[in-house]
Write a structure and sequence with these properties.
ATP-binding; mainly alpha; Glutamate--tRNA ligase; Rossmann fold; Glutamyl-tRNA Synthetase, domain 3; ligase; GluQ/Sye; 46% helix; aminoacyl-trna synthetase
Length: 486
C-alpha cells in the first residue's frame, strides 16, 4: 500500500484563518491516521498579497497546535524546495508548462487585457456567462515561438476539450462530473513567469508524491481542470477530500476580511490552542460517539474521512467558550496558575497569594481574558450599591445583612488563626447558632468583601486571601453603608 502523503500549503498573506487551520488539522489527521507524512509547503507566488512575518506566523501556529510537519522549508526533506517562489526560480513551472504545450494540454496566448475585456462586454450585453474564446488557441506552435522570440509578452493557457465530460471521485462529495464545454481555459503561467495556483499546485503535488489532497469545497469546480492536466501528463491523480465551509451564520462564510476571528485573535482573547484545535476538529467532522473533548492523539485514532459532512459548519463562539472552560478545569492548578499569572500581575498589585487566587479562579474561568476583571476587587474595593445585599434566592435584605455582618465581624476579629479552615468553621458554627440559612450570612460577607455581584470564590476564600485586617476593614465599610440606610 502506498504511504499516505498530505500537504498543508498556505499562502503567507496574513493571519491563520480558522478554515485554514481546520484544513491543516484534517491534512495532519489524514496522514497520521495511517502513519503517513504531513508536509508543509509555502505557496508564495502571489507576490502582491504577501505579508511580512506571515511565514513565521504559520510556523508558530502549527507549533502551538502540535501539528508537527515531517517535511517543510524549515526542516527540509527529500522533495524540496518547499517554497514555491524558490521552486519557480529553478524554472520547473516554465519547464512543465512547455511540456504541457507540447503534449497538447496548453497553448501560448498573446491576447491583451483589452481583447479579453471586449469579449466580456459582449457577453454582458448578450446576457450570457463569460467564457473567453481565445483566438491564440489555433495558433501553430512554430508561430507562437517566433512571436516569443520577437519579444512579445505571453501567458500560457490551458486547453480544454470542446466536447465530452471530465469526472472525478471525491472522498466527501462522491462522484462529480462536468461538461467540458463549461470549463474556461485558465491561465497556468502568467506573463511575469509566475505560475498561477491552478498550475503550481498540480506540479508541486505530483513532484512531492502527494497522495491525498485536502482543501475547501470552493475548489470542487476547478478540480476537473486539474485532472485534465494530470491526464495529459499521464500522472496518477491524488485522492480528493473537499471540505464544507466554516460559516459565521447560515448565510455568511467565516472570513477574516469580514472581521471574523483568526486563530491569533482567539488566542489573544484568552482561548487555549488545544481547545481551539479540538473545537475546529468538530466543525465538519462528527465522531462515532458522543465524546466532544479530544486530545490530538485521541483525534488521530478517532478521525475518519467517512464522517466528514457535506454540510457547512457554523462557528459557535459560545460552544468554543464552553470547551475552553473544560480544558482549563482539566489542568493541574500549577498549569493553570502559569497561564493565569500574566493576567494576575496585570490586575492584582497588592501583596496577595496569587496561587490562592488561581485556586478560586480555575473552577469559574472560561477564557483567560476574563481573569483581569474578575479579580480587580482584591486591590481596590469598588464602590457599590447596598441593593446588592438584598438577594431573593439567598433570603437576605438590608436588615438581615447588617445583622449578619456585625456578628461575623465580631467573630472574625477575635479569630486567633487566619486560615481558610478556621474562617469556614467559625462562620458555619455562627450560622448554626443563629439558626439562619447559609446564604443569609455568606452573601452579605462576600458582598462586603468584594463589592461585586459575581466573584470567583465565596466569602470564606475571599476573606482568607484578603487577610484579616483588610477583610475587617471592608466589613466595616459594609456595616457603615447599611447603617446609614437603617
Amino acid at each position: 500500500m502506498e504511504k499516505v502523503r498530505t500537504r498543508f500549503a498556505p499562502s503567507p498573506t496574513g493571519y491563520m484563518h480558522i478554515g485554514n487551520l481546520r484544513t491543516a488539522l484534517y491534512e495532519y489527521l489524514v496522514a497520521k491516521k495511517d502513519d503517513g507524512t504531513f508536509i508543509l509547503r509555502i505557496e508564495d507566488t502571489d507576490q502582491e498579497r504577501l505579508v511580512e512575518g506571515a511565514v513565521d506566523l504559520i510556523y508558530s501556529t502549527l507549533k502551538e497546535c502540535g501539528l508537527e510537519h515531517d517535511e517543510g522549508p524549515d526542516i527540509g526533506g527529500d522533495y524540496g524546495s518547499y517554497v514555491q517562489s524558490e521552486r519557480m526560480a529553478s524554472g520547473i513551472y516554465k519547464e512543465y508548462a512547455e511540456k504541457l504545450i507540447e503534449l497538447g494540454g496548453a497553448h501560448y496566448c498573446f491576447c491583451s487585457e483589452d481583447d479579453i475585456h471586449h469579449q466580456k462586454e459582449e457577453a454582458e450585453a448578450k446576457g450570457v456567462s463569460f467564457k473567453y474564446n481565445d483566438p491564440c488557441h489555433n495558433m501553430t506552435l512554430e508561430e507562437a515561438r517566433q512571436r516569443i522570440a520577437n519579444g512579445e509578452k505571453y501567458v500560457v493557457r490551458q486547453n480544454i476539450p470542446l466536447t465530452g465530460t471530465t469526472s472525478f471521485e471525491d472522498e466527501v462529495y462522491g462522484h462529480i462530473e462536468v461538461e467540458n464545454s463549461i470549463l474556461d481555459e485558465s491561465i497556468l503561467l502568467k506573463s511575469d513567469g509566475f505560475p498561477t495556483y491552478n498550475f503550481a499546485n498540480i506540479i508541486d503535488d505530483h513532484m512531492m508524491n502527494i497522495t491525498h489532497v485536502v482543501r475547501g469545497n470552493e475548489y470542487l469546480s476547478s478540480t476537473p481542470k486539474y485532472n485534465l492536466v494530470y491526464q495529459t501528463f499521464g500522472w496518477n491523480i491524488p485522492k480528493y477530500i473537499h471540505l464544507p465551509p466554516v460559516m459565521k451564520d447560515e448565510h455568511h462564510k467565516l472570513s477574516k476580511r469580514n472581521g471574523d476571528a483568526s486563530f491569533q485573535d482567539l488566542v489573544a482573547k484568552g482561548y487555549l490552542p488545544a481547545a481551539i484545535l479540538n473545537y475546529i476538529a468538530l466543525l465538519g467532522w462528527s465522531p462515532e460517539t458522543e465524546q466532544e473533548i479530544y486530545s490530538l492523539d485521541e483525534l488521530k485514532k478517532a478521525f475518519s474521512v467517512e464522517r466528514i459532512s457535506k454540510s457547512p459548519a457554523i462557528f459557535d463562539i459560545e460552544k468554543l467558550t464552553w470547551m475552553n472552560g473544560m480544558y482549563i478545569r482539566s489542568m493541574s492548578l500549577e498549569q493553570f496558575h502559569q497561564l493565569a499569572l500574566p493576567h494576575l500581575h496585570n490586575a492584582v498589585k497588592g501583596d496577595f497569594d496569587l496561587l490562592e487566587i488561581s485556586k478560586i479562579l480555575q473552577p469559574r474561568v472560561s477564557t483567560l481574558n476574563e481573569i483581569d476583571e474578575m479579580v480587580d476587587f482584591f486591590d481596590v474595593l469598588p464602590e457599590y450599591n447596598i441593593a446588592m445585599y438584598t438577594h431573593k434566592k439567598m433570603k437576605t435584605n438590608s436588615e438581615i445583612a447588617l445583622s449578619s455582618l456585625k456578628q461575623a465581624r465580631t467573630l472574625l476579629q477575635n479569630l486567633p488563626q487566619w486560615s481558610e479552615e478556621a474562617i469556614h468553621d467559625s462562620l458555619m458554627n455562627l450560622i448554626q447558632e443563629l439558626g439562619i440559612k447559609n446564604g443569609q450570612m455568606l452573601w452579605p460577607v462576600r458582598t462586603a468583601l468584594s463589592g461585586k455581584q459575581f466573584t470567583p470564590g465565596g466569602a470564606i476564600e475571599i476573606a482568607h486571601i484578603l487577610g484579616q485586617a483588610e477583610a475587617l476593614r471592608r466589613m466595616d465599610i459594609g456595616i457603615a453603608k447599611l447603617s446609614e440606610q437603617a
